[in-house]
Design goal:
Blueprint: H1 3-25, H2 31-44, H3 52-82, H4 98-107, H5 110-120, H6 126-133, H7 137-155
Helix pairs in contact: 1-2, 1-3, 2-3, 5-7, 6-7
Length: 168
């Protein structure tokens, strides 16, 4: 940033800073950030605008509206993420209650739950799961078997002779 741009930014911040923040506050929750970004963009302009105050108000307005759209988008995503995920179909004819099964899955340690979800729903191999979570394929398989054992215990289900049952 050259000396003239620095001087202009200091002058605009002193003279217009509070008014620009008030102006931006109409649209967004972080007007200070919007004003700061606009001042930095002003310093980068070559040539410096003829009417820097008007340029700043236009830049602050655009930045505040953009920030408001981002806030709204983030809030929609956070709201959607906060909704309980349905990991099971409600009526699959197995007598398994979807809410109870979801709760049981959520009680598993994250490392085990991640392996179960990626194995059953993602249909990943244990090698792919190991690469994904940063462990060996055998460690991924051990986590999977441990998770299934915990789920079986939770539901009082005995393990039949399948490939997912631990050997006694």
């Amino acid at each position: 940033m050259d000396e003239a741009a620095l001087k202009l930014v200091q002058q605009m911040l002193t003279q217009q800073g509070p008014a620009l923040e008030l102006y931006a506050r109409q649209w967004c929750h972080a007007p200070e950030d919007v004003v700061q970004e606009a001042l930095l963009r002003l310093a980068e302009q070559r040539p410096i605008p003829d009417r820097p105050v008007a340029w700043l108000y236009r830049a602050v307005r655009r930045g505040a509206l953009s920030a408001a759209r981002g806030d709204a988008r983030r809030q929609r995503h956070e709201t959607a993420a906060a909704l309980p995920a349905e990991w099971f179909e409600c009526d699959v004819g197995l007598g398994l209650d979807a809410e109870v099964a979801t709760a049981a899955l959520e009680e598993l340690p994250l490392a085990e739950r991640e392996v179960v979800v990626t194995r059953l729903w993602g249909e990943l191999s244990f090698q792919e799961i190991g690469d994904l979570v940063g462990c060996s394929s055998s460690a991924a398989q051990r986590r999977y078997v441990a998770a299934l054992a915990a789920l079986r215990e939770r539901f009082g289900v005995r393990c039949s002779a399948t490939k997912d049952c631990p050997k006694s």
